[in-house]
Write a structure and sequence with these properties.
By secondary structure, this protein is α/β, with parallel strands linked by helices. Helix 4 packs across helix 8, helix 5 runs parallel beside helix 6 and helix 12 crosses helix 13. About 45% of the residues are buried. The structure holds NADP nicotinamide-adenine-dinucleotide phosphate (NAP). NADP nicotinamide-adenine-dinucleotide phosphate binds next to helix 4, helix 5 and helix 8.
Length: about 475
């Protein structure tokens, strides 16, 4: 398998697992394992050292707060990423880490797609963070004549104006305080860009910030571009529309930077028409996802008897939501370095349960993740309590007959059923169910699975959890 991930803290807002899952499926890349991994600043070096030792890694998407700090951990940094001062993509090749910035490409392609030609034009930016640096660089590269950077912290805007300005002498970069006087402009504005998180879903900033929009002079063919993609129409874009400006949301940039990332990781250029088709289908997919998503990022845990389909349904659910997926049994085997039957025979059921409890604890801290729990994980009252306070527990229910039918195929590999004939297996299932039923029934959601395809079960889980979290 090829390994890749988005790393950051928090990463609950990240659409990268949904995007790269979609690209892998659409481009028939079956061996890509893409994760969302929360990494604290203090743990970045240690995390990267681990990745270096694992030959299957092909790359990482890098998000807040590592985009700048990660540069010193890399073996080389592209000219663009170095000029922007931020790395949003790491390519792992032959044990070396190479840093890139695909946000610049994302900005340029989004503007090109909307036929917003900024060559020789004046542009106004709000914000002076990492994304604003990429936008400023892109505007310099596209030959804008004037770029005004308005920021709450004037010094940050001045730094961008100096540093990016020195790379593009034909563009006049100017820093202003966000609430300061509007400076003289070389010409009416062709473009205004929001590079702040104000207006983003879940961000409590003040959208009065953009009041000055109505005081700025615009060309008749001017655009407003918001880097935010959730919601699709932000307060900034609504106001811009009311002033007659054409609008561009952040989804296009997000998708184009992801396509550029894919090309870097897989060393293959997507053909023009293939890229256009992919872009369109990915935009439709993400647009739907933003609509159906469960906004509350707490994990969803699936429990139920062995053989009920927790892994298959969990994968389908994660795909439906664009979330990550983990299976606590897999974490256990990875930690122990041996299979579950081997753990049972070497350390007994108690040894297995203690590894399982540690896996559950780790899963509780993973936002936007669907967690398939081992059949007995909820038997430990401490784990059960942690699960119930960390997210939603969903009980996947199935009748005895269908469980028996499914386990007839895989029962021999299950330590609790191994060595039993069909009759003894049935008795064992019944006695285990009798003990577990009250615990399973304590789950916040109960979903019947008999006769339903995994996708349908996943949709029913989404409906039930959304209702609960509305
Ligand atoms: P960042 O480095 O944290 O910078 C945030 C900027 O916004 C800073 O200039 C900050 O001002 C300003 N700001 C924050 N809160 C504010 C408030 N309440 N009032 C006024 N100004 C405020 O963040 P970033 O990485 O540049 O990201 C900015 C936005 O772009 C985010 O919404 C992010 O999701 C989006 N983005 C989208 C894409 C895409 O592909 N569509 C890619 C990258 C980023 P100070 O300097 O004064 O703190």
């Amino acid at each position: 398998m090829k390994e890749a991930a988005v790393i950051g803290m928090p990463i609950s807002h990240s659409r990268s697992p949904a995007i790269f899952g979609f690209l892998a499926k659409t481009l028939n890349v079956a061996d890509l394992n893409y994760h969302a991994i929360p990494v604290e600043s203090s743990a970045l070096s240690e995390f990267l050292a681990k990745v270096r030792k694992q030959p299957d890694w092909i790359g990482m998407n890098v998000t807040i707060p590592h985009k700048e700090a990660i540069r010193r951990e890399l073996d080389s940094v592209s000219l663009e990423a170095s000029a922007v001062g931020a790395v949003n993509v790491v390519e792992v090749r032959g044990g070396k880490f190479l840093g890139h910035n695909t946000d610049v490409f994302g900005v340029i392609r989004a503007l090109e797609e909307h036929r917003c030609a900024v060559h020789g034009q004046s542009v106004w930016l709000w914000g002076a963070g990492g994304a604003a640096r990429a936008v400023a660089y892109a505007l310099g590269k596209m030959g804008a004549s004037q770029v005004v950077i308005a920021n709450r912290t004037l010094a940050r805007a001045e730094k961008i104006a100096d540093e990016i300005g020195s790379l593009f002498p034909a563009t006049q970069f100017q820093a202003v305080a966000m609430d300061g006087e509007i400076p003289a402009l070389a010409s009416s504005l062709k473009l205004v860009v929001n590079c702040t998180p104000v207006g983003m879903h879940g961000f409590s900033g003040d959208s009065d910030l953009f009041g000055a929009l109505s005081e700025l002079p615009f060309r008749s063919d001017a655009f407003a571009f918001d880097l935010i993609y959730d919601p699709a129409v932000t307060p900034f874009l609504s106001l811009a529309r009311s002033l007659g400006l054409k609008t561009i949301g952040g989804l296009d940039m997000l998708i184009y930077q992801a396509l550029a990332t894919w090309e870097i990781w897989f060393s293959s250029k997507l053909a023009g028409d293939e890229a256009a088709r992919l872009k369109e289908s990915l935009a439709a997919y993400l647009g739907e996802l933003i609509k159906i998503q469960i906004k509350d990022p707490r994990p969803i845990f699936l429990t139920g008897f062995m053989g009920v389909g927790k892994s298959t349904i969990g994968s389908a659910l994660a795909k439906e939501l664009g979330w990550g997926f983990i299976d606590t049994d897999k974490i256990v085997t990875k930690t122990a370095g041996i299979s579950i039957p081997e753990i049972f025979s070497e350390r007994g059921e108690a040894g297995f349960r203690s590894l399982e409890a540690a896996a559950v604890e780790a899963a509780c801290a993973m936002p936007r993740t669907v967690v398939a729990l081992g059949g007995g994980a909820v038997l430990d009252p401490v784990s059960l309590k942690k699960i119930q306070s960390a997210g939603d527990l969903v009980f996947l229910s199935a009748g005895l007959e269908s469980l028996q039918g499914r386990l007839a195929k895989s029962g021999l590999s299950r330590p609790l059923l191994a060595g039993l004939d069909a009759h003894a297996q049935k008795e064992r299932i019944q006695s285990l169910l009798a003990v577990r039923a009250p615990i399973y029934e304590s789950a916040r959601h109960r979903i019947e699975t008999d006769g339903l395809a995994p996708d349908e079960v996943a949709r029913r889980i989404v409906a039930s959890v959304r209702k609960e979290r509305a």
